[in-house]
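Exercise 3.2. Students should predict the tertiary structure of the chain below and write it as structure tokens, then compare their answer with the key that follows.

Predict this chain's 3D structure.
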Amino acid sequence: MKITKNSPELLLLLIAAGTAMSFAVWQNLLNNFAIERAAFTGVEIGILQSLREIPGFLAFTIIYVLLLIREQRMAYVSMVLLGLGTLLTGFFPSAIGFYLTTILMSMGFHYLETIQNSLTLQWVSKKDAPEFLGKMIAAKAAASILAFSLVWLLFEFFHFDYKWIYIVGGGVSLFIAFYSWNHFDDFPQKVYQSKKLILRKRYWLYYALQFMSGARRQIFVVFAGFLMVEKFGFSVGEISILFLINSAFNIFMAPRIGRLIAKIGERNSLIFEYIGLIAVFCGYAVVENSNIAVGLYILDHLFFAMAIAQKTYFQKIANPTDIASTAGVSFTINHIAAVVIPVIFGALWLSSPSLVFYVGAVFAGISLLLAFNVPSNPEAGNETIMGRIPHNALET
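Answer key:
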């Protein structure tokens, strides 16, 4: 598909890059800043990650915010919150300070992710959606490469303090937000979006996939990176290089993964993803070699890119008027487990890090069973193989 100047697709790619810039800096410095400046253990990092996920759990409230402001404008506001939260982090190197700036950053990040998903499924056709979603991942990866390179350069060569690196990371996203706000027109909505909370029985499989995705993602986001620092002693520079490698792979692979999903379908894509993640989580549980751990981390990222299939599955089965509301609801469902898993598993980590990853493999196994229920050609009225809602109940 061709992306033209001042098009909605270009705006979506720019928003994706702006989101990635701040979050990549925050994520890159997270474990080292937490351990070196805030003296965190697995318990505190678990609390931090649970607090970070609370705005994601409350993502359904976006539908009420959209009664007052258009989705496109709210995307800019969300990016400002994300940038500010990142920029202020280095000024508060204490547990409470880190918690509060994380909540601010997370409010912007999760609202922005919700709106971005909604606008993408509204603005991009079903035919082009898998490839375009791959391009969005590639755009995020390119911005992340810039962020990780900047962190590595400023930290390793110029010995910048954490505070100044956070300022740079947050400042870039603020600039992109204000530039986008002033540069792009307000694009019209193709379909009126419902401004009330919607839970439909026929979307039950999508909700279940979202719930399990959130549970699995927390194991990876919270503890895979922490494993690299705590067990293998990775420095800020080494973590930056690891993230750089991941992002480079995503730039090359994500658009191809999108095209692959369009070719083989959502069902086969999800099955392949979850089989791979079971193997990766089991690998994390037993790995003793840092090079193998790095390989698992890269594979993990590539498999998670195949989650594009969840979004295109929903786009195919959804009533077009439900997209904005369901984007918020599904984000909340995705974060139900995310609020409690970091705290509970942070305590479990102290006694058995391996068990944390074995549970992650169990989560991936449950997701695999759900994936087998995705039809080969999903559409409204053909949402599942088993547990299908009758056609005359499509809007329930």
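Discussion points: Residues 223 and 370 are 25 Å apart (CA to CA). The longest helix spans residues 236-286.
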